[in-house]
Amino acid sequence: MNHKKALVCGAGGFIGGHLVNRLKSEGYYVVGVDVKNNEYGNNSADEFIIGDLRDPKIVEEIISGKNFTEIYQLAADMGGAGYIFTGNHDADVMHNSALCNLNVLESAKNAGVKKIFYSSSACMYPEYNQMDPNNPKCSEESAYPAAPDSEYGWEKLFSERLYFAYNRNYGIDVKVARFHNIFGPQGTWTGGKEKAPAAMCRKAAEAADGTSIEVWGDGQQTRSFLYIDECVEGVRRLMESDFAGPVNIGSEEMISINDFAKMAIEISGKTLSINNITGPTGVRGRNSDNDLLKAKLNWEPSQSLRIGMEKTYQWIAKQIEAKQAVAVEA
Questions:
Q1: Can you tell me the distance from the alpha carbon of 232 to that of 230, in angstroms, rounded to the nearest whole number?
Q2: Options 118, 125, 152, 166, the catalytic residue
Q3: Is the pLDDT reported for residue 80 higher than 80?
Q4: 107 in a structural domain
Q5: Is 72 a catalytic residue?
Q6: Which domain holds residue 85?
Q7: Angle at the Cα of 25 (from 22 to 28), degrees rounded to 5?
Q8: How far is Cα 139 from Cα 129, in angstroms, rounded to an integer?
Q9: In whole angstroms, how far apart are CA 75 and each of 82, 155, 201, 265, 307?
Q10: pLDDT of residue 109
């Protein structure tokens, strides 16, 4: 019998929901917590608690005396470029996310939790190493001197240091991964917090044949994107390893945003053009460097971006169809 008991913080979110599924498949007893239910019903947790991790009393109630063998801390105030890079949400992003991490770590320490995972982000890498869209530098040791391009990145960097401080001072086995643009079905695809893959799929799916879709910036900025199943695989491998991190969990398949939009258009089967407009874009180039990942975990993601985008497009197209059907009935 598997006596492992895990708490997934942020289980109402995209990655959290998929992680719960994975842990359940491995025989864990899983408790999920979030300020909201999973938007797409992706919740297979044994228990799901609606709770605000910014409140230390609530966090203590959730963790104290529950005998969790592992905690996965993914809860954060975040979104895509339209949310993170405008600067309009900086105070909330830093305040909310930092409180979640401070509270979860302190309660985990007090409850004697032995192992905890923290999801950091590639947004903590220095902007000065990501000015050339064709040659970004995102190896783990390049994090310092620190100069993230957003307050979201600064908060992630602070929280990384917080976790390692608790490791040094209190002996908690911490694992830290820097996620690079995770995408896939059952994630936010509309409303302003969606990321580029979902936004591209939505725009292509909604556009009438022969029209155009809008792409922020000149489209020459580059990124890599990692499908959700491979992200979860990386997280589980890191947790089962003797390596603390930080380590990149991402794909090395870099693509320009215009080419990325073209991929979504090809998948849609429509004839659409691209209209590049002014908008928040973040750094000019970013790509995962997986050398350390391969060395420490003897693994790296292998699925092509195209396959992941096909799965994501199909799911988003179904969401749009369902939404339109409800509108017609109304």
A1: 5
A2: 152
A3: no
A4: yes
A5: no
A6: 5-183+226-249
A7: 90
A8: 10
A9: 19, 13, 25, 32, 28
A10: 98
pLDDT band at 203; cut points 50, 70, 90: very high
DSSP characters over 185-228 = SSS--SSS---HHHHHHHHHHHSPTT-EEEEESSS--EE--EEH
- pTM score of the predicted model: 0.94
From CA 330, how far away is CA 310, in angstroms rounded?
A: 31
Q: By the 8 A CB rule, do 267 and 249 touch?
A: no
d(CA 292, CA 298): 9
Within-domain flag for 311: no
Q: What integer is the mean pLDDT of 111-128? A: 97
CATH code assigned at 71 = 3.40.50.720
Whether residue 195 lies inside any domain: the answer is no
In a domain, 301, yes or no: no
Hey, what are 323's tokens? 């939404």
State how many domains the chain has. 1
**Residue 81 in this model has a pLDDT that exceeds 70:** no
